[in-house]
């Protein structure tokens, strides 16, 4: 019996369900062509469910999701729900409880996609950010004193464990080796000010680097990283950084690679259940109009296929996406593509199996 991949699908809010449908359409096409089998289970987590039931994530969710090989997520975020509730209660909770300690964000300019950086071409913009995904400023460590009074105090601490930092760094070194590009790993930190946190990161980085003599190591402060990402993105191969800096520089990365229509990411637990998502959010104003760009979700699907070890299928999807961006789409923006959401999905599905 050949393996049947079990995929949990969380369509989520806004345009999430529409783009997830296109990702699954592409998966179905390449499954036939490359001869793998899968089944899906759908979960209704998101704003609508929360409004209906008052429950953000049922207590059984994590146990249920542990029964799957991967999770394919659309978008979380609802205009009627106070910011923070769904993000923390669904997205961050799943990242933490499934121990998805890597947030992987390729920043790659595909042919035909417009970047706001003047004179930069696809060969200049092709790097990956490895963001630590379970520690740093995201753990909720800290607290409030005299909240809501004129004398209130807020402390929010960054938690950096040697264990958490090392496993993230090792993942980045391995990925850098596997990519086989320039083999350069840049640590992005703030060693001049955040001396405790990034002192630890830097020591661990230098120690582990000894085990990877084939990889060039490099360091940039986070503020300088932002400058170079705009001025000289070709300097980067793999960047590794903490949770908060990674959050910020990957939004910059998404813009550099042509915007939210194309940017995808993976929340990875290398030995567990990983979750793949377009990073653009739920775009509520475009819901149900069949005009949102589904390529980010299709790219998230492509990352999932690659993660599952279906490298041929993943490569076919990426080639199809590049043909669509390079020769078929008028623009990457919702409503301006010259095609509907489902037509883009149909086209990628067709090209991926040609
Ligand atoms: C991301 C998002 C999340 C984060 C939010 C929605 C909690 O911005 O995936 O980058 O901050 O990690
Ligand atoms: Mn973010």
Low-confidence stretches are none
Strand order of the largest sheet: 2-1-3-12-11-4-5-10-8-9
CATH class of the largest domain, named: Alpha Beta
Secondary structure tally: strands? 12
| Small molecules bound in the structure, each named once | 3-isopropylmalic acid, manganese (II) ion
**SS field, number of helical segments:** 11
Report the structural category: alpha/beta
CATH topology of the largest domain: Isopropylmalate Dehydrogenase
Beta fraction of the residues?
15-25%
Mean pLDDT, to the nearest integer, reads: 97
Shape: globular
User: How many strands, what sense, and barrel or not for the largest sheet?
Assistant: 10 strands, mixed
What string gives the helices and strands in order? EHEHHEHEEEEHEHEHEHEEHHH
Straight-line distance between termini: 27 Å
Architecture of the largest domain in CATH? 3-Layer(aba) Sandwich
Report the radius of gyration as a whole number of Å.
Answer: 20 Å
CATH superfamily of the largest domain: Isopropylmalate Dehydrogenase
Total of domains: 2
The percent range for helix content is: 40-55%
